[in-house]
Amino acid sequence: MLFTSLLFVAFFAVVFGIHALLPHRARNLLLLLASYLFYATWNPRFLALIWLSTAVDYVAGRIIGASDRASTRRSALLVSVVVNLSILAFFKYYNFFIDSLDLMLVPFGATAASLHLDLVLPLGISFYTFQTMSYTIDVYRGRMRPVRDLPDFALFVCFFPQLVAGPIERAPHLMPQIQSPRRITARHLHEGLALAGWGVFKKVVIADNLSRIVDPVYALDADPTGLQVVVATYAFLFQVYTDFSSYSDIARGTARMLGFDLMLNFDTPYFARDMGEFWRRWHISLSTWLRDYLYIPLGGNRGGEIRIAFNLFMTLLLAGLWHGSNGTFLVFGAYHGILVVIARLYRQRWPVRGGPIWPGALLSMHLFAVGLVFFRGQTVAQCLSLFGAVFTDFQWDPAGLQPMVVVLLAMLPILVFDLSHRRFGSDTFVLSWPAPLRAAAYFAVFYAIVLLGRSDGLEFVYFQF
Amino acid sequence: MSSSTSSSRRVPKALLAALLAVACVEVFTARTASLWMNSDALFLRTKLQEVESGPPVDILILGDSQAVAALHPDKLAAGLPENTRIYNFGLPAVGPTGAEIFLKRYLERHPPPKLIVVANTARIFIEDPRLFANYTVRHLLNFDEVLLAAQRDGDFDYVLQWLATRLPTLRHRDAIRTGLASLVFDALPELHARAWGWLRGSLRKRKDFEGFLWEYTGRKERNERYARDLALNRGWRYWVEVAHPIGVLPDEIRFVANPFHPEPREVDALESLLVTCHERGIPVLLVPLPFPRAHADAIHAQGGENRVERFWSDIGRRHPGTLATENWILEMPHRSFSDQSHVNARGLAEYTAFITPLIANAYAEALAR
To answer: Could you give the ipTM of this predicted complex?
Structure first.
């Protein structure tokens, strides 16, 4: 059930209507059932994995909260982390491991191909696994008390607006919202509609239309010129941003209409002065998760520069691998690890002291675009051949730049929106506009969706993770 | 109830203004729907109007666009008793699923015809099963018909899409987009030339470019033609154009025939249609439509004729007396076709000569009953 499908609109309308009529306790049960139904429309079998994660972390949290013995607490945490990471590793990385092993065995005349399994990646597994694991770690660290009510905890794990593609919520932020009665105001509805509407616009009008430029060039059997690779990569730069942030916007918008406040996941990332700042603005829920549960435990900013650089590099490398079990994501992560380390060294020598942001923002955006070749490419060999085309088969032709017109047109509303977001410090700044201007904006967005949106239901890019 | 709603004066004002503006645009689009309809939608609307307002008929023909082209009421009437009223309810891309829906619609409004002729090639049974569900004219159907098709398809989203097409701008969005492009390009022809150049440079596939070209030039011509049609005879001229297409299918055309695996949903619909007619005491005649020779050759090359004949003989066994012939791969030379599917005027004459006696016999038997 895609967020941009009519089925989801009908589903949400029903859930919203019933939700409004129920008392708090029944509301949570309704949302829990709705979330399971939402997930089951993709593949009901994989609900079992969600239930397993829910049960393990609920019990682990209760044990950790109830015990004063360090060894018991540690064991419960260990069980939670091992179970969650095992599920994730099996479904996401098992075949990657086997294929890599197979390659390594080639010189010895052996093969591991028979161990390769036809696995289907459960939708949203990377998101909900991280979310539920963070709960147990937070209980262990004493940052929150264990949840007693199982349905409330189950809802925290599978809350449908953010179940399959985030934001990856933290228990100390989301649990209190689940547990406390929610007051839904007209402001909630207005903000929710504005966010969701803007999200749908970004997805069906911008991202899906840009995919027409990107997909043919990045197809495995394509043989593009260097110019086409450059143009398609610029298109993907805006496609991936609008696609992923649109999901977050719709998730936050629908949650807002139900009285929840989900965290901001994208904070104008293409205005970051360097790659370090970029990762503090891009997919914030993942980067802060990795910061709190990986970077800091690795040592964080403690220790010498080499140690810090190592910590940063490893965190970004794993951030790359989080996206998928493919060599391309390994390169993507390593590339960003190096860039973030360089950015840190640069800022230590030349700290930010005001000045225009655009030189750093332009550089960061272009560095990110280069890395996106590995993000969008399907194999490392294909990515290298795309880079090869840029350097050895560019075939300059002014007519070949024409799709850039579409890219620039797509960029314009994003630029205006992000500039306003920065200026007003909120992504619901539209609510402060004068009524006629707001009405015109709603009208324009509505008809852009109706007339220009692609209606063939392309999946969100981040669903594959 | 634990929720409450606070009032804010600014919130409804902007939303209401936007809704009002949207309502104005939608009403305008609905009022000018004829300008936005595509040819299939216009064709169906015209036919539905004819059926709903016209007199009951003696022979009702159901089928797809090939049936429209090959079974011309006036030509058939010449070989039938005087004053026999024949109506061809064939519609482009409509197989048995659509035929069943339209038959029910007809029977709701009129007494049963004396004979129903169902004309489909074998091909309609192996088309994409969603073809009818995706049919561009679905918004003209009644909700119960839509629900029936969705139930058959197991596709609830189809009903939602039908509901969405209640919004006139969404219903006609393709036409509005190309229409707006036409307005711009008609006013600024030099911009059209430039856009053409852009697309030529940026589109890798020629057919994409040709598609764009059609949208502009085709749209402009079509708008003018529709305006004439609507003014003259509510689009009926389009039917005449389909029934008498010009042109000849080149001899060198070759076909690739898909293996004949009848789509269960279409077969079920045909069975259901036959059962409905049997229950209502309406005789049915299933007639084959002609294939270009190269297409028939392609079917023979993979032994498809056996599958086709087995399929129809099964139908004939379950519903005795419905088959007009045993030969279901009816070959005709390429010169009798205007394109790979539809007969031209020559083909119409040849096919009419073949089919009229079969229909006349069935009609005589129906009258005798």
So the answer is: 0.73
